[in-house]
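Fold it.
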Amino acid sequence: MNRIELYQGDITEMHVDAIVNAANKSLLGGGGVDGAIHRVAGPKLLEECKKLKGCETGQAKLTLGYRLPARFVIHTVGPVWHGGEIDEKEQLASAYHSSLKIAKEHHLKTLAFPNISTGVYAFPKQLAAQIAIDTVRDFLKDDDSFEEITFCVYDDENYEIYEKLLSS
């Protein structure tokens, strides 16, 4: 059974147990996916995030989803791309792995990931997608707790990248 899905659309509209937020270290909102999630979830998300006192690159933290259709938000901090010389690949894999680990610890069955670090953090999209898919596939090999993991992409370019990689 294939538990990995690809969806093109707005992650803030997904009806899953948790969506993953491509957050910055402060967890206090920002641009892109992070800003969209905070806008839809409402001010209570920011209040809860302030209590978390930030998050390190490659790590993840859980909050409620508030006004989102998802019950929870897993906030993870991906790396800023600096040419691949300072463990960015490992940090990105860790962001996905940490998110999966938190979801499993909280018995969440359905999870949606955005394209972590590929916006203003400038991680190359093809490489980021390969790391995301490999990390999720590797996690699922030894774990049957998840019903479905969805890669939620917003644009055509990322959809085509993920579609090719998932079919191989």
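Residues 4-167 form a domain with the Leucine Aminopeptidase, subunit E; domain 1 fold (CATH 3.40.220.10).
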